[in-house]
Amino acid sequence: MALTLEQIYQAERDKFGMKLIAGNQGSRVAVDWVHMVEAPELISFLKRRELVIVTGIGNLTIEALSDFACRLQAKDASGLIINVGPYLRETPKELIDYCAREDFPLYTLPWETKLVEFSRDVCKRILQEEHQEKHIEEIFLDGMIFEERRKEAQTFLARYGFGPGTCYQLLVFWARGEREDGQESAVEELHYQIENILNRINGHYILFIHDQAVYAVLADYSQEESEQFIGRAGKIKLPQDFVCYCGVMPKTDSFSKLAQYFEKAGLLLRLAIIKKLKVVYYEDMNVYKLLLSVNSKEVLEEFCENILGRLLHYDEVNGTDYQGLLRRYFASNGCIQEIAKQAYVHRNTIHYQLNKIESILGMDLENWENRLTLQLCLLVKDIL
Questions:
Q1: I want to staple 217 with a disulfide (CB 3.0 to 4.6 A). Which of 155, 185, 206, 379 is the partner?
Q2: Count of C-beta atoms within a 10 Å radius of residue 212
Q3: What is the pTM of this model?
Q4: All domains in the chain, ordered by first residue
Q5: Residue scoring higher pLDDT (221 or 1)
Q6: What is the 3-class SS of 288-317, one letter each residue?
Q7: Which of 50-59, 102-111, 296-305 has the lowest mean pLDDT?
Q8: What is the reported pLDDT for 345?
Q9: DSSP character at residue 30
């Protein structure tokens, strides 16, 4: 929902004589500010998503404009505006060709335009959009967390195109790294990249960070648009060896159902990380979906403790990993030979360890009901 260059152009073109020259396909990019830059060496001071105006007063030549635009694009600038006048009398074909080829938005403003007024007008719109966006995020989050505020949130959101009948789809993202340092910057980078993808597909969404996770709420996206977004998001690359994981909830036109999905989103994301799946769908979770529907975490914890508690305690005290062996036992459908082969031990060693597990738990692993109970316990541990 950030203000895009496309929206700025629609709002300012008649008022200030702004003209689109090339790169229209790249204009669905957010703009955070407007800057005058008259020399290539000043580009390094820019931040991302800034719209740059150049007049040529700093002796920037026509011939140097293509390289100038290339360096702006490398700095993740949103676009370039040429203030056509006595210093830059034309927009060179080489620059137009470059911007068209690279989908880098290129515009012109007539010399008569008062650039101070143009910049002030655009920056005012940016600040208003940021304020509105933040307010929408806060109200939406309140509606997700507090049931008593849900109706009020729906009434508010309807003013901004999220009214009754809106079809929502919730996705949650997590930046996972080996070290904790760099987590905050990785989350910000993740938010930045997701926002860029969304703006290029469909600008009707709510995007926010909560508990170090990035939540994207798609509104009235077609199936093709949803799949396009998920496909691109699944290819996000983060710095410092951080990996992006994504949990995808089903579509719903019920705000209350959406709130239920919001409650389960963190658990779904945890499953994605445990199973090392970059994208995991709630609808594909089978038994996990049943467990995720249990509203009481205490019930699940009690169930797990009553069944597996003694084994977990034994592992902790003795430095063993009988819980891991139990998982491998079920994963191999009880094939002792396969487990022994993976562990590089004799099958008798596995038999001994399984007998020890039966003794600790007081359960016969040949009993199918015991097997089912233990497998459910291990699945519960995955989501706790």
A1: 206
A2: 11
A3: 0.81
A4: 5-123 (3.40.1390.20), 165-289 (3.30.70.270), 297-383 (1.10.10.2840)
A5: 221
A6: HHHHHCCCCHHHHHHHHHHHHHHHHHHHHH
A7: 296-305
A8: 85
A9: B
